[in-house]
Amino acid sequence: MAKHDPDLSLLFHALADPTRRSILTRLSRGSAPVTELAEPTGLRLPTVMRHLGVLQEAGLIATAKDGRVRTCAIVPEALAPVGAWLDEQRALWEGRLDRLEDYAMKLMEERKS
C-alpha cells in the first residue's frame, strides 16, 4: 500500500490550481495585499480569499492583517516536503529505468551470440 501523507496531499492540492500557482509566483517577489493578488486573476474577492485559504491551510502562505489591509507572504520552506517526495520518486524511477536498460542490453547481447 502506498504511503499517504496528508500534508503532502494538501500541498499538491494547493499547487494543482493555476490561480493558486500564479498567486505563489507573485508572492515569490515579495509580500502583497490581497487586493493586489486579486487584480490579475479577474476573480471576485471572495473567490480569491478561498484560494488564499487553501494556500494558507497547506502552509504555503502566511497572512497578516494591519487595519483593513490583509497582506500575504510566501512560506518557501513549506515546499520542502514536495521536493523531498519528488526526489524520492526520481530516484525510484531512475533506478527502474537503469535496470530496464541493463536488461535490454543483456537481451541484445544474447541475440548477437
TrEMBL record:
Q: Which InterPro entries match?
A: ArsR-like_HTH (IPR011991), HTH_ArsR_DNA-bd_dom (IPR001845), WH-like_DNA-bd_sf (IPR036388), WH_DNA-bd_sf (IPR036390)
Listed Gene3D superfamilies: Winged helix-like DNA-binding domain superfamily/Winged helix DNA-binding domain
Q: Pfam families annotated for this entry? A: HTH_20
Record-level Gene Ontology MF annotations: DNA-binding transcription factor activity
Per UniProt, residues of the HTH arsR-type domain are 1-94
Q: Which PROSITE patterns match?
A: HTH_ARSR_2
- Top-level taxon of origin: Bacteria
Stored NCBIfam families: HTH_metalloreg
Name of protein: Transcriptional repressor SdpR
What is the native source organism of this protein? Palleronia marisminoris
